[in-house]
Sequence to fold (349 residues):
Amino acid sequence: MEFTAQMIAGLIGGTIVGDPEAKVNNFAKIEEGKPGCISFLANEKYEQYIYGTESSVVLVNENFEPKQEIKATLIKVANAREAVAKLLQIYESMKPKREGISDLAFIDPSAKIGEKCYIGPFVAIAEGVEIGEGCVLHPHVTIGRNAKVGANTEIYSNAVVYHDCQVGSRCILHAGCVIGADGFGFEPTEDGYKKIPQIGIAIIEDDVEIGANTCVDRAVMGATVIHKGVKIDNLVQIAHNDEIGSHTVMSAQVGIAGSTKVGEWCMFGGQVGIAGHATIANRVMAGAQAGIPNNIKKEGAAVQGTPAIEGRNFWKSSAIFKNLPDMWAEMNQMKKEIKLLKEQLEDKQ
Fold:
């Protein structure tokens, strides 16, 4: 597929500076640009590359003013990062979708498969399963008995949706992710740990994306729920009976213990950990490696550190922490001097 700068500007509402007939057929990072590619500049740290890039077209913010000549045609937009995201979405949507069922797939006769689906080799679909129209199931996907998958959902190789669990429409489950494995529930006894049966389910609502090797455990009773629009990175653990609010995003290696309720539009950096039975307000932002041991009631709070505290206080504390050895030595010296002064005063009396 080939597009001119004029066509692209029309799609994203941009203004052209240069040749409106410049043609592109691929994307490239600005520092790796080649003729026929489109790149973008959204971070001033990369401005040096725009003056030498070989890309034919570059998206830039509308306030960008070049300091020297640029060979590429520029398309000025309100937000270059958002514009390139929109173009990538358009590009992806134009790719032809695969359809058909492989002879090497196993589908139980009681399963219901929607129209225009692709089901790859070695996919296993158990009894009572319902698959919506337009779904794409890559090789080695397993869908357990009575599970449901909504329309136009894509599930990559080796992902598993356990029995009775539900996945909404337009979801993406990446390779190796597991929906509905047993929650970590055991009762200590004199003879060891006895398993507590996990008889609930996991529900993934519409427009959710879940990364590779991420696990969403089923509930003890009731449901673990991932609400609509949530985006979860690779290697994340969502424990039994958790509820994740709409449009919340989580980076890699976040871990959320059981029966925790996370609000809407929250943002968690890598390796954030949240204790069980906590309630997190809407729009909370937790920096990487924050450890949250209890509730966060303030909407829009920004926290950092372990145990997590307000972000600005964390950075102030961090600045002090690295100076603690010197401060300790100074304090000991002051104690010695104060002691000496007291002794001198006592002698004079």
The chain has two domains: 3-93, 100-312. The mean pLDDT is 95. The first strand starts at residue 3 and ends at 4. The helical segments are 5-12, 47-50, 80-93, 311-321, 324-348.
